[in-house]
Amino acid sequence: MACDPARVQAFLAAAEHVELADRSALYWAGRVTLCADPDDVPRYDAAFALWFRAEPLPVEQPGPPVPRPARIAPLAEDGGEDGEGGGDPLAAAASDAERLRERDLGDLGEAEREHLRRMLAVLRPDPPSRAALRRRRSRRGELDPRGTLRELLRSGGEPVRFARRSTARRPRRVVLLVDVSGSMTPYADALLRFAHVVVRRAPMSTEVFTLGTRMTRVSRQLRQRDPEAALAAASRAVPDFSGGTRLGETLRAFLDRWGQRGVARGAAVVVFSDGWERGDTALLAEQLHRLRRLARGVVWANPHAGHSGYQPVQSGIVAALPHVDRLVAGHSLRSLEDVWSWVRRTG
Asked: What is the pLDDT along the chain (347 residues), one digit of tens a residue?
């Protein structure tokens, strides 16, 4: 059984709350903390029974772990499975897709990453909007005096109907700041693909910048239709992939060159970063304070915030918390959808 340190620690904590002489209570304490998959239950039962036998335990050398490939059903047009097993491939695909939405983006295998790319490609995130200064004709809304007079002139003075108007809507600008430092390498590809989907949905109102030791604008590269070509162009444009992290300096460069001039004004800003800051945290807090005064709202998406037991103790997160609206998880596709729901509500 693949028991990580977190599950072992959870089992030890659960064992402190049960009577060790009560074998049934100890069994369930281990089953609910050590079993991560239905296939683990028979293995756990065998190990539990073997441990309490009178004979000494056999010593076996553990072999290399057998990789479990992702169970991804083929698309309907691919012809489906060979028909063996009698399972429903559509139900299996739906189950796998739902499970993949909750998986940590940094722990995916190659087959799961390919499945995730296909799921990202069909996303249609509706851009947020804001009230415009102008008004437009509408069936409902307040009375339009000028429009009503024009209708009267057309009908020879007879009041045929009253014209009405409502507030027009315009797209609200969205700014995505993606940390591409070494600690964010497992998530960088998925985050940039998500940014590509957002840019393709609203290319004129979305801006994407990468943060590392330098600030780089990749909005133009991500406007390409093909995601692979867009990601390749973005990787060539970013000189500091998997490097260090200087969030304060890169945020200052963003605000001085782009944000203060209008990109961040009234925008919904999302920062994707784990908060590891090698520079001055006071500078990071100062720049986030500037950003918060310009933007409509600022949310910080931290991939580690989705893990159980997470505490915001990183220096960058501690400096950022007083100046952001929310600290949310950004470790899975489900959490990215929640982030976009926040962006829509901000609009």
From this structure: 777 778 888 889 888 888 888 888 889 888 888 887 777 888 888 888 888 776 655 555 555 555 544 444 443 344 444 444 445 555 555 566 778 888 888 888 888 888 888 888 888 888 888 877 777 777 777 888 888 788 778 777 776 778 888 777 888 999 999 999 988 999 999 999 999 999 999 999 999 999 999 999 999 999 999 999 999 999 999 998 888 889 999 999 999 999 988 899 999 999 999 988 888 899 999 999 999 999 999 999 999 888 888 888 888 899 999 999 999 998 898 899 999 998 988 76
Please state whether beta strands 297-302 and 268-272 pair in parallel, antiparallel, or not at all (unpaired): parallel
Question: Beta strand 142-143 with 326-329: parallel, antiparallel or unpaired?
Answer: unpaired
Strands (E) across 205-275 are located at 206-211, 215-217, 268-272
Q: Is the pTM of this model over 0.70?
A: no
DSSP letter string, 119-140: HHHT---PPPEEEEEEEEEESS
The Cα 190–Cα 193 span in angstroms is 5
How many whole angstroms separate alpha carbon 323 and alpha carbon 134? 33
Cα dihedral angle (189, 191, 196, 201), rounded to 10 degrees?
Answer: 160
3-class state of residue 300 by DSSP: strand
Backbone φ/ψ region at 169: left (φ over 0), alpha (ψ -120 to 50), beta: beta
Environment class of 78 (CB within 10 Å of its CB; exposed 0-12, middle 13-18, buried 19+): exposed
3-state per-residue secondary structure call for 262-294: HHCCCCEEEEECCCCCCCCHHHHHHHHHHHHHH
CB 169 within 8 A of CB 265: no
Quote the DSSP letter at residue 304.
G
